[in-house]
Amino acid sequence: MVSNMMTSNSKNMMYTVTLLLVGIMAISIAPLASAQFAVVSGNANAAAGVGGDNLPPLFIDNSITIDQTILVDGIVNEPVVVSTGDMVEFVVLTSDNIGVDNITHVSIYLNHDGERILNNLQETFVSFKYDELVISNTQGLIESVTMDTAVIGDEKAFVFNIIFDKPFDTSNVLVRSWDAYSNISMMSLVDSFKVVQGASVPTTESVPTTESVPTTESVPTTESVPTTESVPTTEEHVDDKEMSHDDELVHEDVTKDVKNDVKSVLPYSIMLSGAEDAVPYDITGGAITESIINLDNNSIVLTLSATDDGILTISPTTSTQSGIFMVLVDGEEANNVTINDNTVTVPFLAGAEEIEIIGTFVIPEFGTIAAMILAVAIISIIAISSKSRLSIVPRY
User: Fold this and answer.
1) Cα–Cα distance list, 62 to 9, 74, 93, 185, 322 (Å)
2) Mean pLDDT across the stretch 45-51?
3) Could you give the angle at the alpha carbon of 325 between the alpha carbons of 320 and 329, nearest 5°?
4) Residue (of 326, 343, 324, 342) closest to 334 by Cα position
5) Nearest-angstrom CA–CA distance, 105 and 26
């Protein structure tokens, strides 16, 4: 009897130890799984696709249309000249190997010099970002913008109607498109666009006084004066523009007066599995191809494909990472880094492969999955232990 009880005890102990080992292994693996980043452009759901995608969106005929004038990348174009106060139509026609719904961003940079994207605080641009209109108007050049999209077969047209408030000299137009897998297409139209001051409207001071106005006998009657019905209103002008689009044009009904509502927006984001907030970022000179966290260093590690010298600006929320105090580029401490609270700006050279942002905290090691595994393991151990105690009660 005693021998049987000892044998039973030994088996139960082996089960308990085995279960404990399995639970510990599962818990140690779970944080690594939950620490993976999905690289997306503003929407974490886009990373759910399998198989990956290495092909960027395409600009049809490598061109953009500005007020019905087609400008082609790679050749010398006559600049399109427009006036302040007039509505200017920009049309970007695109396609994508996965489908047009895979295109997440289309941005048009105006008053631009060169192919390099500068810090957003210096840029003037309009952008389609997951069906939303994003505007950067730090120089006050834009009065208002509306955005439309149209799906035409396998292609999608992104239409921006812009009214300019200030003139600027002949400049480049840079167009950038980004898909859900962080593949970027860029198009630089050199010396292609200029805004001049529109005709000024005479003020009431320039209207002749009643002393200089001819008598009523010589003034044409109201019958010969064109009525206001024959003068196109601003609303009619807008309608004419909209009616010139394809019948399939879908108006997003997004209009913004940006004179007093200008915000700097980092256009892309990476989403950490298990974190509540996406991490906004912008990058020039390359792209982020992989993102993970290093729990030992409390750091975010970004793998780059840097084809040119560039700048990374990233701004994790404090719930994702805090206490940022150091940045490593390819394992070496970077000295020319700007850290402003939780916003980090990191210049890097062409060929750079890795940027590591180190803080005093990153998202907790034990994520939701790990907590669930731990709970199941504890409940299972309690259940087996209780069963073991019942099974070894001596029989008299």
Assistant:
1) 76, 9, 9, 10, 43
2) 40
3) 90
4) 326
5) 39
Integer Cα distance of 147 and 161 in angstroms: 6
Query: CB-based contacts of 220: which residues, under 8 Å, 6+ apart?
Result: none
Helix 2-34 with 368-391: angle, nearest 10 deg? 180
Instruction: Return all residues near 229 (Cβ < 8 A) that are at least 6 apart.
Output: none
What is d(CA 337, CA 325) in angstroms, rounded to the nearest whole number?
Answer: 10
Task: Single out the residue of 284, 296, 302 nearest to residue 357, CA to CA.
Answer: 302
The answer to whether 161 touches 239, Cβ cutoff 8 Å, is no
Nearest CA-CA partner of 100 in 57, 148, 50, 48: 57
349 has pLDDT over 80: yes
Q: How many CB atoms lie within 10 A of CB 356?
A: 18
In the structure encoding, which two tokens stand for residue 58, read together?
């395409």
CA distance 237 to 226: 18
Least confident of 22-36, 178-192, 271-285, 338-352: 22-36
Contact between residue 195 and residue 67 where contact means Cβ atoms under 8 Å apart: no
Q: Which amino acid makes up residue 376? A: V
Would you list the DSSP string of 191-217? EEEEEEPPPPPPPGGGSPPTTTSPPTT
Which pLDDT does position 326 carry in this prediction? 94
CA 338 vs. chain centroid, Å, equals 21
Please report, for the chain, the start and end positions of each structural domain, with discontinuous segments joined by +: 2-31+367-391, 58-200+238-257, 266-362
**How far is it, in rounded angstroms, from Cα 325 to Cα 347?**
16
Q: Which two tokens stand for residue 366?
A: 């034990």
Scanning the structure block, which residue is given the tokens 């232990």?
385
> Do 341 and 370 contact (CB within 8 A), yes or no?
no
Q: Which two tokens stand for residue 216?
A: 């009523």
3-state helix, strand, coil in the chain (%, to 5): 20, 40, 35
Where do we find the tokens 């210049």? 347
In this structure, CATH architecture of domain 58-200+238-257: Sandwich (2.60)
Tokens (6 digits) for 390? 């019942």
